[in-house]
């Protein structure tokens, strides 16, 4: 039987084929020669690509500037203490162009301006000058008057201790004359300009005393009717202290006569402020402070101007006011000797919209009106301005509102009055020399005169040459080089469907001015945009106080060349302390207000000035948003946005808490004409609330780093009133919460000079309605969805604690939730130095920013209570 295996189709033997295939596989799998050249090229290409990627990463990665915040942040202790507060100028001009100052060790020095040399007042010994003290040399430079240990009791003015040093003998004389161990406080003191050495006058317990010669133990009493809270001679009473810092007694040029004001408060009502003593004190519930406090419905203090002949002590004359105001209530706002035979006095009506400038001549001492100042627009006048007199005694310069041609607005300008002709002209100049590239205001002059002035915190001099009249800005030469600096802050892009053309126009029209590049040190080319000046008696030199934007410094310059004589203060220690600190970045803006249907009418400004304090770690190109705190002004007719160097709570909030702080010049602010300033007259809060809401909206829509939700308001006094009023009239809920420190609530209970300045007299037509509409308790029904924090000191005199209590009572009656904090035995100035207050505000703001909505028990209950 035949059997076999077949591997092919024909069943034949395939061994030779397998051997052939195996041999082929062996040959095919043998090693081949490598392509080294191709492999090298591939590796080079790979490394080239990696190098390009690495180079791109390096180029596109921003340079590491180190820590985002360079320097240490400001703490609360930094801004509340004295370490970062600049030293103030505490000197005075003497005769022969000499300046009395102190050096870094509080030793008295005399600077001779013509030679620029500095020498000690005493070579053999030194007189200690404690911090906060004041010093004055007699007319012959023999005696030094030193006042120390200033103290203020609640309801009273300042008191201090005084001593006179005889620089020739070293003898020390206490004032008043007493034993060396007895320190008797006095209220006021001044040297006589008389050539008789050592004559002075002082006030003690509301009476005036005269010392004809300090070396003789003899004192002559000028008045004897002074009493506490009754009659005050030579020392302003509470009302006049609240109005201004003017003195109340003046020597004539020769020193032979003394004029003074007698204040009669017997018809003025009293208010009582409680003092909360220690718990174990017997006077815990009995001690009170009594203040003569005039209100819009009560009489104001009666004042009389008197003159005493110091050569004949019994000759005291009372000057009669102008007949036109004899039977009216008025304030005596300025007194100045023209010469030994004439006094100039300004009498302002109680309504504060009309002032009479009068000359009171020796003999009959009857005051005759030589010029009348009116507000021009419905509103008030600035009282207490100084005056300059011509040597002839008949012509003088003063400030008054003047209407500008082709406008309906008034601006405060310089007026020259000729008392003989009973005519006045504007003291103007035709050409501006060396003008800064900022707004000069409406200061286009028409009549030449020579004048040294401070305008918009710039030191200027008006001069007259043979061929032209000029106004030269003495502190603007460096300013021009810095005003070209602009901010590079990024703005938020408009979202489709939510921004109208007006909003887009607002964003594109915001003008961002310079920021301070070197806020923490002085150098030779420092720009000075906030100045003050003190002219020497010879008019050939002046002290220039540069107050910002850099750390303040003081220098002496000559006129008219403006050459630097001596740099006397640069705050060197403050510079050193500031170098390692993280300052907030400040930027000043002009925000357009293009809003219709507002109550602005004719007073609508084109732009609102805004200053932003930006955290030092803020970067505009990031998506991080920061909370916004809007700080309202404390008083109307002031300026919030300035170039003054400040170390305040806003610095701490921006640097230490990463909160953007905004200051805004609202309606009622100074410096942009009386039409805008007086626009708040009889309607406080109405226009400012619109300013705050609309400006804050524009800031939120413009800058991507400002949170559109975390926004709060804070203010004190009138600013506290604005905070509450704005919260209550903010239907769009731009602000979620507000902080009011010592706020105004009821204008009827406010001091008469303050309330009537902005609301007029209560007895005038519609006066009751204006006071009612300005009352905060009439608009609190809208506060149930807002967070409110009230803070008040129980010893606050001008804005007493009753105002906060009236607000609290009204909110409690409506069953609204709010926070309130009282500070026993503290006034506003004491509160400003209290760290606990700022910590409480900080805690409240954290809660405000974390949640905008206040919890409600029942919306229907709130609705019923609001109705």
UniProtKB/TrEMBL annotation:
<feature type="domain" description="Peptidase S9 prolyl oligopeptidase catalytic">
    <location>
        <begin position="645"/>
        <end position="848"/>
    </location>
</feature>
<dbReference type="GO" id="GO:0012505">
    <property type="term" value="C:endomembrane system"/>
</dbReference>
<feature type="compositionally biased region" description="Low complexity">
    <location>
        <begin position="488"/>
        <end position="509"/>
    </location>
</feature>
<keyword id="KW-0378">Hydrolase</keyword>
<dbReference type="GO" id="GO:0004177">
    <property type="term" value="F:aminopeptidase activity"/>
</dbReference>
<dbReference type="GO" id="GO:0005886">
    <property type="term" value="C:plasma membrane"/>
</dbReference>
<feature type="region of interest" description="Disordered">
    <location>
        <begin position="488"/>
        <end position="516"/>
    </location>
</feature>
<dbReference type="GO" id="GO:0008239">
    <property type="term" value="F:dipeptidyl-peptidase activity"/>
</dbReference>
<dbReference type="GO" id="GO:0006508">
    <property type="term" value="P:proteolysis"/>
</dbReference>
<keyword id="KW-0645">Protease</keyword>
<feature type="transmembrane region" description="Helical">
    <location>
        <begin position="39"/>
        <end position="60"/>
    </location>
</feature>
<dbReference type="Pfam" id="PF00326">
    <property type="entry name" value="Peptidase_S9"/>
</dbReference>
<dbReference type="InterPro" id="IPR029058">
    <property type="entry name" value="AB_hydrolase_fold"/>
</dbReference>
<protein>
    <recommendedName>
        <fullName>Dipeptidyl peptidase</fullName>
    </recommendedName>
</protein>
<keyword id="KW-1133">Transmembrane helix</keyword>
<keyword id="KW-0720">Serine protease</keyword>
<keyword id="KW-0031">Aminopeptidase</keyword>
<dbReference type="GO" id="GO:0008236">
    <property type="term" value="F:serine-type peptidase activity"/>
</dbReference>
<feature type="domain" description="Dipeptidylpeptidase IV N-terminal">
    <location>
        <begin position="138"/>
        <end position="400"/>
    </location>
</feature>
<keyword id="KW-0472">Membrane</keyword>
<keyword id="KW-0325">Glycoprotein</keyword>
<dbReference type="InterPro" id="IPR002469">
    <property type="entry name" value="Peptidase_S9B_N"/>
</dbReference>
<dbReference type="InterPro" id="IPR001375">
    <property type="entry name" value="Peptidase_S9_cat"/>
</dbReference>
<keyword id="KW-0735">Signal-anchor</keyword>
<keyword id="KW-0812">Transmembrane</keyword>
<dbReference type="InterPro" id="IPR050278">
    <property type="entry name" value="Serine_Prot_S9B/DPPIV"/>
</dbReference>
<dbReference type="Pfam" id="PF00930">
    <property type="entry name" value="DPPIV_N"/>
</dbReference>
């Amino acid at each position: 039987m035949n059997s076999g295996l077949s591997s092919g189709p024909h069943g034949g033997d395939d061994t030779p084929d397998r051997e052939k295939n195996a041999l082929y596989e062996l040959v095919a799998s043998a090693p081949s020669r490598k392509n080294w050249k191709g492999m090298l090229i591939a590796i080079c290409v790979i490394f080239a690509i990696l190098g390009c990627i690495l180079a791109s990463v390096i180029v596109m990665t921003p340079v590491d500037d180190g820590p985002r915040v360079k320097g240490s942040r400001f703490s609360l202790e930094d801004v509340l203490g004295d370490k970062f507060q600049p030293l103030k100028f505490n000197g005075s001009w003497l005769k022969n162009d000499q300046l009395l100052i102190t050096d870094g060790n509080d030793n008295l020095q005399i600077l001779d301006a013509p030679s620029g040399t500095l020498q000690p007042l005493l070579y053999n010994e030194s007189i200690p000058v404690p911090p906060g003290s004041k010093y004055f040399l007699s007319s012959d430079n023999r005696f030094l008057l030193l006042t120390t240990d200033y103290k203020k009791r609640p309801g009273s003015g300042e008191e201090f201790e005084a001593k006179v040093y005889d620089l020739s003998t070293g003898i020390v004389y206490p004032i008043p004359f007493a034993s060396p161990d007895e320190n008797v406080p006095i209220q006021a003191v001044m040297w006589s300009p008389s050539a008789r050495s050592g004559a002075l006058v002082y006030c003690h317990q509301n009476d005036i005393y005269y010392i004809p010669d300090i070396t003789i133990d003899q004192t002559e009493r000028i008045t004897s009717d002074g009493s506490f809270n009754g009659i005050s001679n030579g020392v302003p009473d509470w009302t006049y202290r609240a109005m201004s810092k003017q003195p109340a007694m003046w020597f004539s040029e020769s020193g032979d006569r003394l004029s003074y004001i007698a204040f009669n408060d017997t018809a003025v009502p009293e208010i009582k402020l409680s003092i909360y003593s220690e718990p174990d004190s017997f006077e815990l519930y009995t001690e009170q402070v009594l203040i003569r406090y005039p209100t819009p419905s009560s009489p104001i203090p009666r004042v009389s101007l008197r003159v005493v002949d110091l050569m004949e002590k019994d000759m005291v004359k009372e000057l009669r006011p102008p007949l036109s105001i004899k039977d009216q209530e008025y304030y005596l706002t300025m007194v100045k000797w023209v010469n030994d035979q004439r006094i100039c006095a300004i009498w302002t009506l109680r309504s504060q919209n009309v002032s009479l400038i009068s000359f009171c001549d020796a003999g009959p001492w009857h005051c005759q009106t030589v010029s009348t100042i009116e507000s021009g627009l419905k509103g008030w006048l600035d009282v207490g301005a100084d005056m300059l007199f011509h040597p002839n005694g008949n012509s003088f310069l003063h400030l008054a509102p003047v209407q500008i041609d082709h406008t309906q607005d008034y601006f405060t300008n310089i007026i020259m009055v000729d008392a003989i002709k009973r005519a006045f002209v504007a003291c103007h100049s035709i050409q501006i020399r060396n003008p800064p590239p900022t707004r000069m205001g409406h200061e286009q002059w028409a009549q030449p005169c020579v004048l040294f002035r401070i305008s918009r915190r710039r030191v200027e001099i008006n001069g007259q040459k043979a061929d032209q009249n000029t106004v030269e800005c003495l502190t603007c030469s460096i300013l021009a080089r810095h005003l070209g600096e602009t901010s590079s802050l990024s703005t938020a892009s408009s979202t489709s469907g939510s921004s109208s053309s007006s909003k887009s126009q607002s964003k594109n029209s915001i003008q961002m001015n310079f920021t301070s590049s070197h806020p923490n040190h002085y150098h030779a080319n420092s720009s000075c945009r906030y100045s003050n000046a003190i002219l020497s008696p010879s008019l050939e030199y002046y002290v220039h106080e540069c107050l910002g934007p850099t750390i303040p410094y003081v220098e002496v310059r000559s006129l008219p060349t403006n050459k630097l004589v001596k740099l006397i203060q640069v705050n060197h220690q403050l510079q050193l302390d500031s170098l390692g600190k993280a300052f907030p970045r400040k930027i000043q803006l002009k925000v357009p207000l293009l809003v219709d249907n507002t109550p602005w009418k004719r007073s609508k400004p084109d732009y609102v000035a805004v200053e932003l304090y930006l955290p030092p770690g803020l970067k505009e190109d990031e998506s991080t948003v920061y909370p916004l705190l809007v700080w309202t002004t404390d008083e109307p007719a002031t300026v919030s946005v300035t170039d003054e160097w400040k170390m305040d709570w806003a610095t701490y909030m921006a640097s230490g808490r990463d909160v953007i702080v905004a200051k805004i010049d609202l309606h009622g602010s100074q410096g942009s004409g009386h039409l805008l300033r007086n626009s708040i007259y009889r309607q406080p809060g109405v226009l400012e609330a619109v300013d705050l809401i609309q400006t804050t909206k524009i800031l939120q829509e413009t800058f991507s780093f400002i949170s559109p939700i975390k926004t709060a308001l804070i203010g004190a006094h009138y600013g506290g009133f604005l905070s509450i009023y704005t919260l209550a009239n903010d239907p769009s809920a731009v602000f979620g919460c507000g902080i009011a420190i010592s706020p105004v609530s009821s204008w009827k209970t406010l001091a008469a000079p303050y309330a009537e300045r902005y609301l007029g007299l209560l007895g005038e037509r519609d006066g009751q309605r204006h006071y009612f509409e300005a009352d905060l308790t009439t608009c609190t029904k809208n506060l149930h969805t807002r967070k409110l924090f009230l803070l008040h000191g129980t010893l606050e005199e001008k804005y007493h604690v009753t105002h906060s209590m009236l607000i609290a009572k009204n909110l409690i009656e409506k069953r609204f939730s709010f926070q309130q904090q009282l500070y026993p035995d503290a006034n506003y100035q004491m509160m400003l130095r209290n760290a606990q207050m700022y910590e409480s505000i900080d805690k409240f703001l954290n809660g405000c920013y974390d949640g905008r909505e206040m919890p409600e028990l029942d919306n229907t209950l709130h609705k019923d209570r609001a109705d």
